[in-house]
Amino acid sequence: MVMIEAEMEGLMRAALLRTPASIDRNPLQVEDIPVPAPGEGEVLLKVLACGVCHTDLHIVEGELPPRLPWLIPGHQIVAEVVDPWRSGLKKGTRVGVPWIGGTDGVCSYCRSGRENLCDDPVYTGYTRQGGYAEYTTARADYVAFLPDELGDEDAAPLLCAGIVGFRSLRMAEVKRGQRVGLFGFGASAQLNLPVLRAWDCKVYVATRQPQHQQLARESGAEWVGGATEIPPTPLDCAITFAPAGEVVIAALKSLAKGGIVAINAIHLDRIPEFDYDSLLWGERQIRSVTNLTRKDVGDFLKIAADIKLRPTVDTYPLEEVNRALQTIRHSQFTNPAVILP
């Protein structure tokens, strides 16, 4: 990231990660650093809100190895354009910045509309600086216009958890009126249950945490059970959100013939051995979900605005970013967390 001269008026507050460590050791330190200057094809953004994601925890604790000498995490950014540079965007435009911050545009995946599988992607808050700060920069062609119906705090958790969950619905080939299983009920599943209900789907939720079970009931789930419980009726498709292989087996056991299990997890422990004849035969499928595309972003944000999706979030000032991540580490959260710089 190119920096402007560190004059007093050119400073901003940002949460910096210099050495990955357990979140309980408070590895993120809020410091005053120069405001970044946009490079070619980039815009300077004033951060209005930034969602907190479990991937941020993987980065901060070093489970995803460092790629930069120092890092500002955060990849669910709601921001206002303050310097459009030569991008064609207008000053004052409100935009969202998701996890994928850019792709090469030339590999076979990009050329076939599958930029989520790009061979050389750039990741916001990991391989480029992110949104736990007062200002950031982003590639102009990878920011998304935010509908006016979505407030800053509403939109922030939608930009990763919501969109990746929505891509999972696509990978599971969910159709209107189907029976859909959600195995795990964290932020991603929570944000997409209203989408499924808007599509007249019957939703079956399996999750281990009692507070998430209660939230699923309050959100209109047809049935709620434990993490590996089998719903009372065969499912047309299912999405697994928990990073546990046994949950994938439970989802497979729940499928009707021809059904699809989409795995929404970056990391997954070992899937136990299973019987092909009873679980996979009958044209059942297992698919992984990888990242997101700009089309996913635009389509989901439009749906979220249309159905008036208003997630209940917990907000934290920038100075409490470590505490926000600690709630994720210790499974204390129910609502998505949002940092307000």
Describe what you observe in this structure:
The structure is a single chain. The protein folds into two domains: 8-159 and 292-340, Alpha-Beta Complex (Quinone Oxidoreductase, Chain A, domain 1), CATH 3.90.180; 162-288, NAD(P)-binding Rossmann-like Domain (Rossmann fold). It has helices spanning 54-60, 108-111, 152-155, 161-171, 187-198, 210-218, 245-254, 276-279, 294-306, 321-329, and strands spanning 11-17, 28-34, 42-51, 76-83, 94-97, 100-102, 122-123, 135-139, 144-145, 179-183, 202-206, 223-225, 235-240, 255-263, 285-288, 314-317, 337-340. β10 (179-183), α5 and β11 form a beta-alpha-beta unit. With 341 residues, the chain is of the alpha/beta class. Residues 1-8 have low confidence and may be disordered.
Key descriptive features of the protein:
7-stranded mixed sheet, Quinone Oxidoreductase, Chain A, domain 1, 341 residues, 10 helices, 2 domains, single chain
Global Rg: 20 Å
Q: What is the CATH-assigned architecture of the largest domain?
A: Alpha-Beta Complex
Which stretches are poorly predicted, pLDDT < 50 over at least 5 residues?
A: 1-8
Q: Separation of termini?
A: 19 Å
Count every helix, treating DSSP H or I runs of 4 or more residues as helices.
Answer: 10
Order of helices and strands: EEEHEEEHEEEHHEHEHEEHEHEHEHE
Which structural class fits the helix and strand makeup? alpha/beta
By DSSP, the count of extended strands is 17
